[in-house]
Design goal:
Layout: E1 2-12, E2 15-26, E3 30-34, H1 41-48, E4 56-61, E5 64-65, H2 71-76, E6 79-81, H3 94-104, H4 109-122, H5 138-150, E7 156-160, H6 168-185, E8 188-192, H7 196-202, E9 205-210, E10 213-218, H8 220-224, H9 227-234
Parallel strand pairs: 3-8, 3-9, 6-7, 7-8
Antiparallel strand pairs: 1-2, 1-4, 4-5, 9-10
Helix pairs in contact: 3-4, 3-5, 6-7
Length: 237
């Protein structure tokens, strides 16, 4: 069982954002999608999650192509993503934000309320369940965003720069959480992240992009030693 993109190309008019990119994500795997800003990483995630249609190429889930499913239908099929800019209902409480995701996924209100508290406890922010989201710090906002994603019972979880803005301790806790999610929820995780220490610690495999193309892929050790990675990402030979 896998989520895969095959020869995906995205054009915006005369601009080619990504070109013939192929990758696959297996259940239980943590795949790091890395590269410099503007490499096309978020564009690819937008394609995988249905927010953007590819100009060429295909995306399939367990060997079945998506066709033109809308993002909410793709999410209900188990492909769930977070965003660089956390999208929360800021006047609602933390628990209500997670409950909303559960109700949208088909749960009744009372069951959603119970499950929301269970997920918040798992995320170690149950003590903030009654607080409105407009009073959260940046790290907790990101945890609520991940909690909303987990509320949709993902088979494949796409995390777009979840550690952005976190301090060292918060990023370390998040790394532990990402490892646990794959184990406890049984989902494959695609991680876009610039924190190379986190990437090296949690990812079983890396896919490197630059200028809209695949540069290299392999284990963290293989990728970090690859001259094209060092040139494209670190600017050294």
């Amino acid at each position: 069982m896998a989520l895969s993109a095959r020869d995906v190309t995205v054009r915006f008019g005369a601009v080619q954002a990504i070109s013939k990119v192929s990758l696959s994500l297996d259940r239980g795997e943590i795949l790091g999608l890395i590269g410099p800003n503007g490499a096309g990483k978020t564009t690819l995630v937008n394609v995988l999650s249905g927010f953007l249609a590819p100009s060429d190429g295909v995306v399939d889930l367990d060997n079945e192509q998506f066709g033109k499913l809308r993002p909410y239908r793709i999410a209900r099929n188990g492909i769930v993503r977070t965003f660089q800019a956390v999208r929360l209902f800021r006047s609602m409480t933390v628990a209500e934000n997670v409950e909303t995701a559960l109700v949208n996924a088909g749960q009744g209100r009372s069951a959603a309320r119970r499950r929301a508290l269970e997920i918040l406890d798992y995320m170690k922010i149950a003590d903030k369940a009654g607080r409105t989201c407009d009073g959260l710090n940046y790290g907790d906002e990101r945890r609520v965003g991940i909690a909303r994603a987990l509320a949709q019972s993902p088979r494949y979880l796409l995390l777009d720069e979840p550690a952005a803005g976190m301090n060292v301790a918060e990023a370390r806790d998040l790394a532990d959480l990402i490892r646990a999610i794959g184990r406890d929820f049984g989902c494959g995780t695609l991680l876009i992240e610039h924190n190379m220490r986190m990437v090296a610690e949690v990812c079983t495999r890396l896919h490197v992009m630059a200028s809209g193309r695949t540069v290299t892929e392999g284990t963290p050790a293989e990728v970090f030693a690859h001259p094209e990675f060092r040139s494209a990402y670190l600017g050294v030979s």
